[in-house]
Specification:
The protein has 173 residues and is an alpha/beta fold. The chain is globular.
Length: 173
């Protein structure tokens, strides 16, 4: 399991950003060994750009994954359940978390699993949950150019909603 880069907020972060699984550039030898928007891959690059445009500082975010171990494929149901257990533990370490950004189907699935199996993980907390498409190119692999544009804009709008929540200005998605 890759570590979260010190560039990010860790336990002090106000945003928990969840994707599918760590990419190849999170592996030591192939990349940094860290979850980080500074990694040399298109997904990290797009996240860094949209976070910056939305006024979200790297220290405000802790990046995470629905299945936090490197597999480089979609996690199966058992793996997502294992990821939900680890996510529960992580949330327990993040008392300042205000927003959970779920990026992609697997992130949304693991969140539903967490709520179903461990509702106490969020009980008594005020967490704004924002869901959108995964920041990878695959989320835009659809024939219809209007749908591609809609998905890309949805991601931007979701990040803006996170930034608005951090600034206390709300925001509709």
């Amino acid at each position: 399991m890759p570590h979260v880069a010190p560039w990010h907020g860790g336990a002090e972060a106000r945003v928990l950003s969840v994707l599918r699984d760590p990419g190849p550039k999170t592996q030591e030898g192939a990349g940094s060994g860290f979850l980080c928007v500074e990694n040399d891959d298109p997904t990290a690059e797009l996240q860094a750009q949209i976070f910056e445009e939305a006024g979200i500082a790297p220290r405000d975010v802790t990046p995470w994954n629905a299945y936090p171990w490197y597999i480089n494929r979609s996690p199966n149901a058992a793996e997502l359940q294992a990821g939900a257990e680890v996510l529960k533990q992580l949330l327990g370490l993040m008392p300042k978390a205000e927003v959970v950004l779920l990026q992609g189907n697997e992130a949304q699935d693991v969140w539903r699993r967490l709520l179903k199996t461990s509702p106490e993980a969020v009980r008594g907390r005020t967490l704004e949950v924002v869901s959108t498409y995964h920041p990878g190119r695959q989320a835009l692999f659809v024939r219809d150019p209007e749908e591609r544009a809609r998905r890309a804009q949805h991601r931007i709008d979701a990040y803006q909603k996170v930034g608005d929540a951090l600034r206390g200005t709300g925001g509709q998605l």
